[in-house]
Design goal:
Layout lengths: L12 H5 L13 H12 L10 E7 L3 H8 L14 E8 L12 H18 L3 E5 L4 H7 L6 E10 L9 H8 L33
Antiparallel strand pairs: 1-2, 2-4, 3-4
Helix pairs in contact: 2-4
């Protein structure tokens, strides 16, 4: 199943087709294909080129590791255990160059994760990122060093049949996609001053 976005302006097809489903096919993701996703993440931009990101990956062809990874999900995200690939994204909280706090690490990890998601779409895969997991348990299970912060769990695989989901999740899977308008989040000159994109007009004094 695909659920492309209905955008107000033309954007790249990979962006339109990227979404976060809950239904995954019972199909392994080949190791080379998985490597391509993380190669895309590798080339994301970062402050001082620190690349403050890491992932711990568990695949369904290693059932013990996969079950262990799935045990960190909250009850509301238990459906994610059916995905053939589970990954924990991590942000390094200090700069490797001087051990000072890196307040940009989460931003940079987000950029790398989006690169991964778009590369997944390019290969017919889907990714669902989640905040609903036990960070303390994840830190223990995955043996995460102190300077690394667990940020999100990721379910990765091929899209599955929404009919395989229980009622409420199936309804959410089939529901229309929506987003705020650009003018609600992008401002001109100062916070709260509409940039006027959705009205099709330029801000006063600009062409």
């Amino acid at each position: 199943m695909e659920k492309p976005a209905t955008t107000d302006r033309p954007v790249h097809d990979l962006i339109r087709r990227r979404w976060s489903p809950r239904a995954f096919a019972a199909k392994l993701v080949h190791r080379d294909l998985l490597a391509a996703l993380f190669e895309a993440a590798r080339w994301a931009p970062s402050c001082f080129n620190e690349q403050p990101w890491s992932w711990v990956v568990s695949t369904s062809d290693d059932p013990e590791a996969h079950d262990r990874a799935g045990s960190v999900f909250s009850d509301g995200n238990a459906w994610a255990r059916s995905a053939p690939v589970l990954a924990l994204s991590l942000a390094r909280t200090t700069f490797s160059r001087n051990d000072r706090p890196n307040p940009h690490a989460w931003h940079d990890l987000g950029a790398a994760s989006m690169s991964l998601c778009l590369e997944a779409v390019n290969h017919g895969l889907v990714v669902h990122q989640m905040a609903g997991f036990d960070r303390g348990r994840a830190r223990e299970i995955f043996r995460v060093p102190e300077i690394w912060e667990p940020v999100a769990m990721m379910a990765i695989g091929f899209p599955g049949d929404p009919e395989s989901l229980p009622g409420e999740l199936r309804e959410r899977e089939m529901a229309p996609r929506s987003r705020k308008k650009v003018d609600e989040m992008v401002f001109s000159g100062e916070f709260g001053s509409s940039i006027g994109f959705n009205q099709g007009t330029a801000p006063a004094g600009r062409p």
